[in-house]
Write a structure and sequence with these properties.
This protein is an alpha/beta fold. The protein contains five helices and seven strands, in the order H-H-E-H-E-H-E-E-H-E-E-E. Bound molecules: S-adenosylmethionine. The site of S-adenosylmethionine has 23 residues, from helix 1, helix 3 and strand 2.
Length: about 180
């Protein structure tokens, strides 16, 4: 009797977790992009193109498992902030940041980045859908400070002229840099 009750309770908890994980991933996917992690070599390309310097504030809109903010802090000396709204990648990023003891150089916020202020960022990183880039454009125009940069993997900001495009060959995906 008690074991049946415990088994049922565990099943309910398990199903609730599955629904939360899949549900938040679906919502994030519809909001701006599904979780597709970048290769580390492409992250380094982005951060190099943006010319990230020690002490600069780097934001990642849709931080996934935290790989951009971790590399920005560990290899470029940045103060990095990631926004993520899907529970599974958020938890993975959180665990990595804790294990590597990267706080307070790296912080992670469980938040919808469309509702967050970007005014403090020196560099904003994106790997998001074309529709999300179009939706972000007026936000970037209103919030990114003079001299601030946006570096985007694969997708450009419609209507903005990139300061630089890095695409060494036909097979390599483009990285776009914009300076305000
Ligand atoms: C293509 S992945 C990029 C992950 C990571 N930046 C990387 O390069 O490895 C996009 C991420 O954005 C997250 N995302 C989508 N819409 C979001 C929103 N409105 N607010 C916060 N995170 C969002 C997704 O959950 C996903 O993890």
């Amino acid at each position: 009797m008690i074991s049946t009750f415990i088994a049922s309770a565990l099943w309910v908890v398990f199903m609730a977790l599955v629904i939360i994980i899949l549900g938040t991933m679906a919502i994030a996917g519809l909001s701006a992009a599904p979780w597709v992690p970048l290769w580390k070599k492409d992250i380094r390309r982005m951060l190099k193109l943006a010319g990230v310097k020690p002490g600069e504030k780097v934001y990642d809109l849709g931080a996934g498992d935290g790989r951009i903010i971790i590399i920005a802090a560990e290899e470029f000396g940045a103060v990095a902030v990631g926004y993520e709204m899907a529970v599974l990648p958020y938890c993975l990023a959180y665990i990595k940041i804790m294990l590597k003891r990267l706080k307070p150089k790296v912080s992670l916020k469980y938040a919808n980045f469309f509702a967050e202020d970007l005014g403090d960022a020196d560099v904003v990183c994106t790997f998001l859908s074309p529709a999300a880039m179009a939706k972000l454009r007026p936000k970037f125009e209103a919030e990114i400070k003079p001299g601030g940069r946006v570096v985007s993997f694969a997708f450009h900001i419609p209507g903005w002229e990139p300061t630089k495009v890095e695409k060494p060959n036909q097979k390599t995906t483009a990285v776009y840099l914009y300076q305000r």
